Amino acid sequence: MGRAVTVATCALNQWALDFDGNLQRILRIPGAAGIAKSKGARYRIGPELEICGYGCSDHYYESDTLLHSFQVLAKLLESPATQDIICDVGMPVLHRNVRYNCRVIFLNKKILLIRPKISLANAGNYRELRWFTPWSKARQVEEYFLPRIIQEVTEQETVPFGDAVLATKDTCLGAEICEELWAPNSPHIEMGLDGVEIFTNSSGSHHVLRKAHTRVDLVNSATAKNGGIYILANQKGCDGDRLYYDGCAMISLNGETIAQGSQFSLDDVEVLVATVDLEDVRSYRAEISSRNLAASKVNPYPRVKVNFALSCSDDVAVPTCMPIQWRHHSPEEEISLGPACWLWDYLRRSKQAGFLLPLSGGIDSSATACIVYSMCHQVCLAVRNGNAEVLADARRIVNDETYVPEEPRELCKRVFTTCYMASENSSQDTCNRAKLLAEQIGSYHINLNIDVAVKAVVGIFSMVTGRTPRFSAYGGSSRENLALQNVQARIRMVLAYMFAQLTLWTRGIPGGLLVLGSANVDESLRGYLTKYDCSSADINPIGGISKTDLKNFIQYCIENFQLTALRSIMSAPPTAELEPLVDGQVAQTDEVDMGMTYAELSIYGKLRKIAKAGPYSMFCKLINMWKEVCTPREVASKVKHFFRMYAMNRHKMTTLTPSYHAENYSPDDNRFDLRPFLYNTTWSWQFRCIDQQVSTL
Question: Does residue 20 form part of some domain?
């Protein structure tokens, strides 16, 4: 009858401007010996802008990016691997001097349609309107004049460009691009009413904790009301910046998932293939009378006729896929896997020999160490599963062509150096905790003391000024106290980079180490860190994760990695250990220093960024949220203190270490959270409005 169609989607670990690598990863999918074609797929879709890589940013302005994208497209058109299968690839295209984010759909060396993106992502981490223009001519197509390099392959002078759908011999397909699925007026609604049965979506969607279910629900709901087959492809991995794209390629039929890809994996190429029955779509739609009434009035889409079928004439015995239950990771699993995969991509692509982490024995640096340990777990697992690319990368990183990573602790010893930097203000407890954790994860551990360097710096200051600063515990002012804390923190940063550059040299091993930071998202928001201290590093895998989530992650590591050293770390109060000990014990704690708890900080962060609340709006929301525990006057005091500290310390965000993006209230100044860094810290008008409300209440 010709109704069972086999389609393929994928998650690709593309890299911005890596045209050679991107071409190689694309060709492995529909190739003659590739997975999709070998399983009988007749349609293949890949991630958004997969030819050049999604994260090209201002490189999109360059004509080179357009030129090289067309050069890769020519290679794809010519490849035997792309014959007899409809291929849908993403790249930027310049049409009438306007740059568009496009899908190029082709079959047997002929371009069928260039479909530009209609709704551009332009919030949070996304700036697509900076580089692209949305296609605003609904249901219209124009002639696109192909460049000569493509004409020579396709023997076509022009092809359709615009908002159209494909009509094959047996069905009708319509494309969406990433953000269009999230838009309130998604194209799949009208396309479905106009008889489109297969919807495709090429995405560049990044990981955020607890976000995967939203994407899955959107895909399934796209066909639950209207019927149809929905095929989602997504980018995966770190393509050159703070984001980790988390795959999750999927295929849905009539509101139910029938194929699920992995969310976190070290595989550069993952292909998902499913066979579906078109009659299931038709019978599902037949009894939805409201849908059929709406369909009778819909404005039709231009159809590009394709002399090709996605099904075979004799397919009665072809088995089709059944619905499955999607398995979501817990937030603790997401922290264990997402940043670990991001670190591996960064390590292998930066061509460094490993990581160095200042390990203080506290929760944050310990969580960072656990993420590196999880990365080693993932590498060993991938090698056991036969991933030749991961094995080759591991051998290059450790500079041993015969090496096979089999045990995470042993790999950790080769690629991970931890360093406890003691001072006279450090306790023996934190030193012991750091040492024990290093032993359990297998890192190469260094103990050193920074007092000589601290005294040398303070000595230079005293020699020049004739004054010697003192800690407040010894009668000094708060200004002296803070300066003496900061000099310790900054010396640790200098030493971290010194040891990162030369530690392997002292051991007779080539290469250098990437320095890892370990400031969490809440401390960055409050500014509870020294500018240019150990928070200043090459990258930070926990910089987008809250303290609350990190504590839960530590508990997860105790249970799943049997890292018993973490128990004492969990039970100890967080402390910077920069002020003098009292009777040999730590007297300084983070929450007392900050004047707020980490739990409160998470709430402030979500209200400030996600709820878009200024001081007055935050006060109004919190007097209800905290009415059982705080008076309005106490709430006002807390809100004012937070905004004063936030305003005073916002300048630190301009130099924040590039961090894995995991929370939507991240204060990252680079592009996610664009704010001034010089504030009037009195907030006089805003605080006066709060005071008036307190008086009224």
Answer: yes
Query: Domain limits at 45?
Result: 4-305
Asked if residue 617 has pLDDT above 60, the reply is yes
Q: Round to whole Å and give the CA distance between 522 and 609.
A: 12
48 catalytic residue (yes or no): yes
186 part of the active site: no
481 within a domain of the structure (yes/no): no
Report how far residue 335's alpha carbon sits from residue 367's, in angstroms, rounded to the nearest whole number.
10
Q: What is the pLDDT of residue 316?
A: 72
Q: Which of 10, 37, 48, 376 is catalytic?
A: 48
Number of domains in the chain: 3
For the segment 288-309, what is each residue's pLDDT rounded down to a tens digit?
A: 999 999 999 999 999 999 999 9
Alpha helices in 319-450 (DSSP H): 331-350, 363-384, 388-398, 408-415, 428-441
pLDDT band at 37 (very low <50, low <70, confident <90, very high): low
> Is 178 one of the catalytic residues?
yes
Q: Which of 69, 203, 252, 360 is catalytic?
A: 360
**Residue 172 annotated among the catalytic residues of the structure:** no
CATH number at residue 510: 3.40.50.620
Residue 47 belongs to some domain of the structure: yes
Same domain, 581 and 680: no
| Catalytic residue (one of 37, 56, 117, 197) | 117
The reply to whether 214 and 162 lie within a common domain is yes
Q: Give the closest residue to 609 by CA, choosing from 546, 540, 549.
A: 546
Out of 56, 102, 178, 412, the active site residue is 178
pLDDT the model gives residue 38: 67
390, part of any domain? yes
| Distance in angstroms (rounded) separating the CA atoms of residues 27 and 87 | 10
